[in-house]
Amino acid sequence: MASPALITLAALSPGLTFREALSGVLGSISLATWIFLLVPQLILNYKTGSADGISLAFLTVWLLGDATNLAGAIWANLVPTVIALAVYFCFADFVLISQCLYYNHINARRARKPSTASTESEHSPLLTRRRSSALNADHPIKDPGQEELESAGNPWVRNTLSILGVIAAGTAGWAIAWQSGVWKPTPEHRGLVDGQDVAVGAQVLGYLSAIFYLGARIPQIVKNYREKSCEGLALLFFLLSLMGNATYGAGILAHSFDREYLTTNLPWLIGSLGTMAEDGIIFLQFRAYAPKPSVSTSAVEEPACREP
Fold it and tell me: Which residues form a coiled coil (predicted)?
């Protein structure tokens, strides 16, 4: 079924086969996704002043995956843009881990300090208590999280718009790179450039990186299950992760189904497609552990008894 996107893709790529253009666009969208991936979680941590929702073990193992990915890219002597992107991944991981450690340290120090909040004494005037209760009944106090949710609007609409923006940025970036000659299609049957020994070494690092990526989400899934909550996690962070892995794997498959090509790229396919299943588990946890809508106290109060 033809669509405006496919027609536009064909119009933007004269001289390219459809599979070459599709592989390039998917790869560019994946690249844009990875660039913006950690931004939602960084913003959420900053707004809440806390990083309690995200597992440090998750981030640490993910950093190991990015580090082995960088080592494999250098060993295989990949193009400078790929190596630069791998360096960016490691840097972004370091920034997020540093932010989490900072907030954990600050909040731990605050928790150790004795509370200075004045508690209500038993000798407080009863009239003051009644006035306070009446005031709270007329103007119920909302917790900061509830106020943030009410003022933020529909999160699914914002997340959808963000994802569409990333897709548009990735597609536009590919079109500009193709028209300017920066991006060129890779031959489908390209041989190993630097010899079989280097390819094997890079592939071993690729499998190791895939193992780290697959294992990284397990601590986060366990943490969510134990706490029965996904509070403090940015849903857009995992949506972008899902889209980045999907477009990355689809870009590889769109390029070629040659057996040798698929074998060479198998560790990266395992790492991208495998983590999509784990992201699906986290999405189910977001659904299962979503806060239930609070019921107003006035709606559940028993009606006053009337005198006969």
Answer: none
Instruction: Give me the numbers of helices (H) and strands (E) for the chain, helices first please.
Output: 13, 0
The encoded tokens of residue 290 equal: 């979503």
What ranges do the domains of the chain cover?
37-110+153-177+201-291
42: burial class by Cβ within 10 Å (0-12, 13-18, 19+)?
middle
* Contact between residue 183 and residue 24 where contact means Cβ atoms under 8 Å apart: yes
CA separation for the pair 72, 85 (Å, rounded): 13
The confidence band for 30, taking pLDDT boundaries of 50, 70 and 90, is confident
pLDDT above 80 (res 134): no
Please check whether residue 245 is in contact with residue 269, taking contact to mean a CB–CB distance below 8 angstroms. no
Asked if 282 and 217 touch (Cβ cutoff 8 Å), the reply is: yes
Q: Count of residues for the chain?
A: 308
Residue 283: CB partners within 8 Å, gap ≥ 6? 238, 242
Structure tokens at 96: 């997020």
Within 84-157, strands assigned E span none
> Rounded to an integer, what is the distance from CA 58 to the centroid of its chain?
12
pTM of the predicted protein model: 0.74
- Helix, strand and coil content of the chain, in percent to the nearest 5, comes to 75, 0, 25
Alpha carbon distances (Å) from 234 to 8, 54, 138, 272: 33, 9, 34, 20
In the chain, the amino acid numbered 134 is A
The one-letter amino acid code at 273 reads L
Contact (CB, 8 A) for 236 and 159: yes
Any idea what the Cα angle at residue 153 is, between residues 151 and 158, rounded to 5°? 130
